[in-house]
Design goal:
Layout: E1 8-12, H1 16-27, E2 31-35, H2 50-56, E3 59-61, H3 86-92, E4 98-100, H4 105-114, E5 118-120
Parallel strand pairs: 1-2, 1-3, 3-4, 4-5
Length: about 130
């Protein structure tokens, strides 16, 4: 398995659950940058503007809870909106993966159309909760 030590990872939104993941990834040696994460209890390098975050990071993680039908990322700690849209997909390009739990089909189609490396983790069997 490849080490994540030294990898710049960007977080887009999230809540305390992503905070736990942030702390774990930092313990593994990753450098974490975030938009819409609370500063208390999370050692992330800091909240950046979206353009800075995308320029600096190699991969991105959005909440497992995903987005609403309009593509708004669940980000209760941000003052503004974070949205999966053409502008964001254009900034990401095809080389920087974005992992997210769930997105509406039309958002996933837009990402595919624009060549964005969107990985919808909620559809992966490895993460499914068996009943």
């Amino acid at each position: 398995m490849k080490s994540i030590e030294g990898t710049n990872i960007g977080f887009l939104g999230g809540d305390e659950r992503e905070g736990i993941l942030i702390n774990f990834l930092e313990q593994e040696g990753a450098f974490i940058y975030a938009i819409g994460q609370p500063s208390a209890g999370i050692k992330a390098k800091g909240n950046l503007e979206l353009n800075e975050l995308i320029e600096k990071c190699e991969l991105f993680i959005a909440p497992m809870s995903g987005t609403d039908n309009k593509g708004n990322i669940k980000a209760p700690f941000t003052g503004g909106e974070l949205q999966l849209n053409r502008e964001l997909f254009n900034l990401l390009g095809s080389k920087k993966p974005l992992l997210i739990g769930m997105v509406p089909d039309h958002i996933e189609s837009l990402a595919r159309e624009m060549g964005t490396n969107l990985i919808v983790t909620g559809k992966m069997d490895e993460l499914a909760i068996l009943n």
